[in-house]
Amino acid sequence: MNVTLVNFAYLVASVLFILGLKGLTHPRTAVRGNFFGALAMLLAVVVTLLDHRVVSLEYILYGLAAGALVGAVLALKIQMTAMPELVALFNSFGGSASVLVAGAALIESQTPTVQSTVATSISGIIGTITFWGSLVGLVKLREWVRGALRFPGQKAFNVLLTLGSVAAGALVVLEPSHTDMFWIMVALASLLGVLLVAPIGGADMPVVLAFLNSCSGLAAAATGFVLSNNVLIIAGSLVGASGLILTQIMCRAMNRSLGNVFFGGVGAVTDSASDDEVYAGKVKSTSAEEVAMLFETARRVVVVPGYGMAVAQAQHAVRDLANELEARGVEVEYAIHPVAGRMPGHMNVLLAEAEVAYDKLKEMDVINSSFEQTDVTLVIGANDVVNPLARVDDSGPIAGMPILDVDRSRTVVVIKRSLSPGFAGIPNPLFAADNTLMYFGSAKEAVLDLVAAVKEN
Amino acid sequence: METFVVALTVFALAVFVGFEIITKIPPTLHTPLMSGSNAISGITLIGAVLSAGSQHTTLTTALGVAAVFLATLNVVGGFLVTHRMLGMFKRRD
Fold first, then answer.
1. Which one is the CATH code of A275-456: 1.10.600.10, 3.40.50.80, 3.90.79.10, 3.40.50.1220?
2. pTM above 0.80?
């Protein structure tokens, strides 16, 4: 196919990518947006297959078929609770593909330009970090390995690794014929990718995933510079930009900087009160029957879901409870903290799966002012995001973090297995507050019991 | 140098377009936006096809085909799972 025609098709694809991504930012246009994106990809791939530089299709078609098959099976089989893991996995594949393409391009080109070799190095480093970072993230999300990998001098070692990768990348630029140096660079960046994400805990995963999402886009854009291909540059930088915005939103929701997430580490609890001081003699435990009675006189109930709801797969039970309450004339809404769960928007997807209408899901800024008019707030498996210490304690690990002001509602019922601390490792005075009742149990069974108790009344 | 400046221009403008169109994302759509944009980042598939198809050396073909597989998985899986998720988002009747 003629080069001009190919480039023209790439232009159409780029426009479709932009429209697609724009569509994804509104619920009413999102399905169409995603379709535009897929269409753009199809168009770009088809014209590339017809490009005169592609002399043999045989192996490509195998690769396409196998990739499409595995991808489709994963996408259709995955449970909604495992969405963060799937996105991490796909992300790692995208990153590694960019690295391989950059490597192959380096080997192919006899007299590469400086642009292409610099871009090769950048794509190699970013893509490799994306690959390993996402894989380590996956391991953490699945909890195959618990705890954080830390050792003395880790920060300095990471700096050394960064400098090492960049130096290797510079050697690739200076001496492109020594392709071994590219793989040495990849090896250094691999170690860096692992060590960067290994110390980060599960609750910080929303930030990490958003950031790596951005990186996968930037790696693709860098590969576009290697090949002087505009559609790669455009699509890649769009994703890079959207990932960065999402990262920023997540960081703001935790009142932490990106640097603090990667290098700060949580858990260095200094002088916060001990569990005993906060909880002793003040925690009131409750039962399904008692909560059902509270619901009976309630006019407005707010549900606050957290990671505990996801782990217990309690979203369907929660929906049943809300339906029961609504049938009795109670207004039910959901309060979603931006970093609830393990990836941005995790709770929204789970509740959507349980057929909860998305306009009942309220963001923090919208719902916070309404807690004072709320009769019962039901907290399910959330902890740090409802810890009132964030408002007052200016030295603790969650100081200044925006929280859901559930403690301002008339009664708070917290469903939780025990009084164990959340990710931040500090006790939560909410559990000992006068208007709080602790309903101990696993989220799913507890909510199912509640449904039964409400039905009985 | 000429091509570099052109490429850089395209890059800079695309980053701006990216920031401009994604100013306000409703939190409801954070996950689909991530998986959908993730699929778009699989655009590197284009480069993979070019490497795999140029038949330069066995090594580059192998690297290219591996990249085709990985990127296609990313693309197809990403768009499909996004579609599946978005199908679940319903408004109040």
1. 3.40.50.1220
2. yes
